[in-house]
């Protein structure tokens, strides 16, 4: 990165564009998280289950994200793989209060990681253990154990407990993602 | 739904008394509340949390020890005025720390309990209850035993003022004006009272009480009699209850019961459809919990249970998850907050170490000078010496604000020290020479690091009375020691009750002579535990007692110049006779002692002992067989060839062994009591039968109730 580019980057004049895939089971809070990351005047009030997918944009201090907010419903999940090629990073959202479907989430994660488009790409994966405000939610450590995240060796990953309704924990996660993407670029 | 709460330590202040920490109601938009806590140095400290840092609101100057802290305010407005009781004075502060009230009550003793409701102020000193309205004296009552706590049914709901006193003699007293409306007995010494559900329940008449032996109960106080709704026994042998609050921590719309105990246990009970409590969560701290309250304190949106401990820690049990972020790598990363905390502590520690070194040098130098006097650092010890009903032993609980280094126990009478599972201290018994220095027991408890609380179990023998001394040394520089003395009374195993079974055969001891009412009361205080030091009102007094080991009863009735003692146990009467005549001789008072022995009472007492003795003998016999049976099982591979009786012993082997371990020397104790009974019975007849004791022991070894009774009658 040249000096001028860096300067422009610091001043927020020019931001790198990144394509991110937001995945996870239905009702895990993907759309709510993306909505929360947008500037406050662009946020929508009510969120309905996504059909197919939608494309959203948000900016952080150094990057401009384009997110493919995929629907997590069973019948739309085979849609995910069509967008794997474009993804430069993955946000995987888990409903940490849904202990029953934790295995389904693990299953989907494993298929994702073993997909030929993903398997050999060194892209960062950010996990959100969402809905941590619910009383009997699992902790992020517990979620990472249940999903066997320690087996991911060739990709950078990070798990963050979040409460998408209040916006807690999201910033930490996106900050990490930004650092990873920047490190990848240079 | 299971409840997960994470512990967060916020801040430490000085040593605190019972019920001296409260959460101020949330004000304005801010959802988090502020906490106000008062300690023994008289400092009232109010603070809130902002990003993991304590932000003080106000802090007052040190003064007298604060014994209670309550919130109040005009009825209908948020209760955010802070009232504290220090000495005999009540002070009021606004939530900003501005003092608006200073009320000198003219009580001779310091205030022990306080309740505030609108303009009404209810205060209790040791025995005195006083009600003030707008600081004007309204009602007054003198209780017959020490008052532990006070509460008042909600005035705005019922339209009348009904204060309830929790007294040391296991009685709740309901007052009306300056008079006693009625009183009723509860199963233990009540230490704390609270309105059920925080508002008195649906009727506004329900109060909950916690006792010093760990029981909880709910009572409805109606106009003329109490209705007991439920009572929770203390099966796990937990400590006494010091604080109670109601808060909806589960978030299900029903308030849960939060309980703090003096052994550091925090419990949360939820109510089911029948309004019966069920335990949902428990957590153990290492020191006694003096205050408990639910609210939102550390972080917006996460409810928590806030605790105040004896040594002044403000600790929270929060619903907020602690570990939020993880990445690859084996070690769990510390979050930023934690790192900051460690860093801050390290810096602070370094600074303090430097300062300490300087001061120590200075001290060493000035200690050399001949004119200087070296002052001793003062520390407070929270102690409790109570009789356990279920196993007839005393619990001595010592708690110091600093970690204890060692505790030395010295006794001038024979006592047994029993093992307590909770105690991690190492005990060593020193050999003592009874002839030379009169010590029957010298034991040292060396505590492990960071033990602030030590629990000991002591077993005394009826009739052997004297003083037990504890020398407590905390980890403090310069090392100092504090001595505490505990009386072991002649009838140490008797517990006070409020009823007496008149149908039992009784032996009577009558005292007459030239003594005053106060004198005879002081003798009773000397002989029996749980009698108030203060001379009772009126010209006579009656107390009832029960022996916790044998369930025999004792009635004491006395007035000026006369005392009447009735018991169904001859040994009790014999001990009383010896001690009373000794006391009278000491004061040079001429006593006429006469006694009346009921022959039936011996049989009656033996009948009471019989089931216990039989149980212990059977247990001992079974335990003896366990090892042999186990060996047989190993050899043969199975136990099918054994008779069913032995098979059942093998099945229950673990429980039997545990039971046997729990009751060490129980059999010897029973033998001792029977021997005492035997000797005492004949002593009253004027014969000395000490030579026949070996014969009695022989009979006891081959125990049969009829032959024992026969021996008692014939010998």
UniProtKB/TrEMBL annotation, chain A:
Q: Give the residues the record marks as binding Mg(2+).
A: 31, 50
One Gene Ontology term of the biological-process aspect is: cell projection organization
Record's CDD domains?
Arl6
Residues bound to GTP are 24-31, 72, 130-133
Hydrolase found in the keyword field = no
Keyword field: Cell membrane, Cell projection, Cilium biogenesis/degradation, Cytoplasm, Cytoskeleton, GTP-binding, Lipoprotein, Magnesium, Membrane, Metal-binding, Myristate, Nucleotide-binding
Q: Name one GO cellular component term.
A: axoneme
Query: Carries keyword Transferase?
Result: no
An example molecular function term from Gene Ontology annotations: GTP binding
For this chain, the family text in UniProt reads: Belongs to the small GTPase superfamily. Arf family.
Record-given protein name = ADP-ribosylation factor-like protein 6
Q: Which species does this protein come from? A: Callorhinchus milii (Ghost shark)
TrEMBL record, chain B:
Q: Under the cellular component aspect of Gene Ontology, which terms does the record hold? A: axoneme; BBSome; ciliary basal body; membrane; neuron projection
Q: Which UniProt keywords apply?
A: Cell projection, Cilium, Cilium biogenesis/degradation, Coiled coil, Cytoplasm, Cytoskeleton, Protein transport, Transport
**Protein origin, superkingdom:** Eukaryota
Role noted for this protein = The BBSome complex is thought to function as a coat complex required for sorting of specific membrane proteins to the primary cilia. The BBSome complex is required for ciliogenesis but is dispensable for centriolar satellite function.
Residues folding into a coiled coil are 335-369
Originating organism: Callorhinchus milii
Q: Where is the BBS7 beta-propeller domain?
A: 21-319
Q: What is the lineage of its organism?
A: Eukaryota, Metazoa, Chordata, Craniata, Vertebrata
Instruction: Give every BBS7 GAE domain span.
Output: 377-486
* Keyword Nucleotide-binding attached: no
Task: List the PANTHER family.
Answer: BARDET-BIEDL SYNDROME 7 PROTEIN (PTHR16074)
**Which named protein is this?**
Bardet-Biedl syndrome 7 protein homolog
